[in-house]
Amino acid sequence: MKIVINISKVLIVTIGTLLFFSFSSVSWEEGKRDWQKINNSVDKIFGNADYNFIQFEIKQKNKFSKYYSIQKNDITIAYLITDKSPSKFHLFDYFVLCNTKSEIKKVTILNYREDYGGEICSYNWLKQFENNNANSSLEFNSKIDGISGATISINSLKNSVWFNTKNLKGFLGL
Hints:
The chain is α+β, with helices and mostly antiparallel strands. The protein has helices at residues 2-23, 32-46, 123-126, 137-142, 151-172, and strands at 52-56, 66-72, 75-86, 91-98, 104-111.
């Protein structure tokens, strides 16, 4: 009888734990592996040098966006935006590197959590964002091709990148 009661308690605790974690929100902070990808991209685009990431605030509705100036010898050489964007069932993490004129130099998906639509992580597809800016959402969106099976993720990424670069451009007064 005592064994049955202990098994019941274990099952109740296990089910309660599973329910708790299934309804908890996904929290993401850039991890060591993510920062390594970011640093590699900055090195490749702006040269391998000593630089610092300095986070700053832009008033906005999106609570996941983070903005950083990338500084070398106290001079801003670029900007970094990290954010989350929704796909069909989960959020995915990405970053955008912009030059000092708020033009996109690189977009990279850091963590994509869906079983389908992973093609948006492809370097060749993400190259479409390069050298675009946030002048017009229609112009910006028409330059990005779709991928069958990734419609939600693509539209989400396009809108999020446009929104964030528009905010950065406004913050910089450009």
